[in-house]
Design a protein that fits this description.
Blueprint (H helix, E strand, L loop, with lengths): L4 H7 L8 H14 L6 H25 L5 E2 H18 L8 H17 L16 H23 L6 E2 L2 E2 L2 H9 L9 H12 L1 H16 L3 H11 L14 H14 L6 E2 L4 E3 L2 E3 L4 E2 L3 H6 L41 H18 E5 L20 E6 L1
Antiparallel strand pairs: 1-9, 2-3, 4-7, 5-6, 8-9
Length: about 375
């Protein structure tokens, strides 16, 4: 049975109604998406990401060997998906694994479509005009669910090592079978798992836009390379050790200005003197926040230094909220930062990336998503 679009939204971590079970899902996810450098989960992330970056470097070297422009997106998607799969699910599928590769493609198609912004998103009565489109989304979602249930869940039961759940799947299943008042049903657990695994597509698309933004900026690439050289070999860079690279990611998020998940007023109030009734849907204009010349100096310019203090530490103004806030804030923003910094640092340490002939590297604001066939780059091993 295809998964309905309404069901996806009603059970998604960002969009579902607030409840005790939703709080349980967020609390359960927090220890996995916000790993402390001293915790066992960090060691797992470190080893998983280190192995995947080595594989990424090998694949990128092979792809660039001919001297032809390289389509980076499939390589980045595979690296991010494999990292998420290894860290959250304790599994690894080799490159070329047909079902895993199809899952990556399906997630990316869904991510692209839901980021396009159709009129029916705001005017539901137009949905009958999008029947074929919704059927396609349901088909991709159904295929993703089939992969999750047959390749990840299967007959798995929770395993505990040293008193801790070994990964996020174990945590979810332990909750499902706990029988507690706040336990999730299996359907909700599967949606939660799909939500977090699907985050790999957002990270890969974001990294593609970052590379496009700095492809003609060797000065920025060199500074990233210099910072990466200060990190101990064989370990992933902790953000505090590479503040300039983190600032590059933040500046990319500012310019992209992707929409923030809407909120709902839980009481009558007013905003700038305008009455807002309880239950009103509230959209924050992220583009206005990020491109307002009263808030930013030369907002159209790509300038990572705007996020650095005089002493070189990362500083974010309170009006910069790329991941939203409160109960609708992105639960994966720390993973975006960690994975983004690691991939960018590794790539520019080992390779020089430049523009390919006749490629337009314009980065449109308002969405993280890019089509599958997008920017290609001139890549050379250093």
């Amino acid at each position: 049975m295809p998964v309905s679009n309404d069901l996806i939204l009603s059970t998604a971590l960002a969009f579902c109604d607030w409840s005790a079970k939703h709080k349980t899902r967020r609390d359960m996810l927090r220890s996995h998406t916000f790993p402390r450098p001293s915790a066992p989960r960090w060691s797992t992330l470190d080893s998983t990401l280190t192995a995947e970056l080595a594989e990424f470097s090998k694949n990128l070297e092979a792809a660039s060997a001919s001297g032809s422009p390289v389509a980076l997106k499939p390589l980045l998607l595979h690296t991010c998906a494999s990292t998420f799969m290894g860290y959250f699910c304790g599994l690894r599928f080799p490159k070329g694994h047909a079902k895993f590769e199809q899952m990556i493609v399906n997630f990316d198609k869904v991510f692209y479509e839901v980021n396009q912004g159709y009129a029916a998103d705001f005017l539901p009565w137009l949905n009958p005009l999008h029947t074929r489109h919704l059927e396609q989304l349901n088909q991709w979602s159904h295929q993703i669910r089939e992969f999750i249930t047959t390749e990840i869940i299967a007959d798995r039961t929770p395993g505990v090592v040293g008193g801790e759940m070994t990964d996020y799947v174990d945590d979810l299943l332990a909750n499902v079978y706990s029988g507690s008042d706040n336990s999730l049903d299996l359907e909700s657990a599967l949606f939660a798992l799909e939500d977090i695994i699907g985050g790999h597509s957002a990270v890969a698309n974001f990294l593609m836009k970052i590379i496009a933004l700095i492809v003609r900026r060797p000065d920025i690439q060199n500074r990233i390379r210099e910072e990466a050289a200060t990190v101990a070999p064989g370990t992933i860079p902790i953000p505090s050790r590479v503040p300039y690279t983190e600032a590059v990611l933040l500046e990319g998020l500012r310019l992209i200005s992707s929409p923030i998940v809407p909120h709902v007023a839980n009481q009558d109030n007013s905003i700038a003197g305008y009455p807002v009734a309880e239950g009103s849907l509230i959209f924050l204009n992220n583009y206005e926040l990020n491109m307002n010349p009263e808030l930013w100096s030369e907002p159209e310019k790509f300038n990572p230094e705007r996020f650095l203090s005089a002493s070189g530490e990362v500083r974010q103004p309170e009006y910069f909220i790329p991941f939203g806030g409160g109960r609708r804030s992105c639960m994966g923003y720390k993973m975006v930062t960690i994975l983004g910094i690691a991939v960018i640092s590794a790539m520019f340490s080992d390779f020089e990336v430049g523009p390919a002939p006749s490629v337009d590297y314009t980065v449109a604001p308002g969405s993280l998503a890019l089509p599958w066939d997008t920017y290609s780059f001139a890549v050379n091993r250093r």
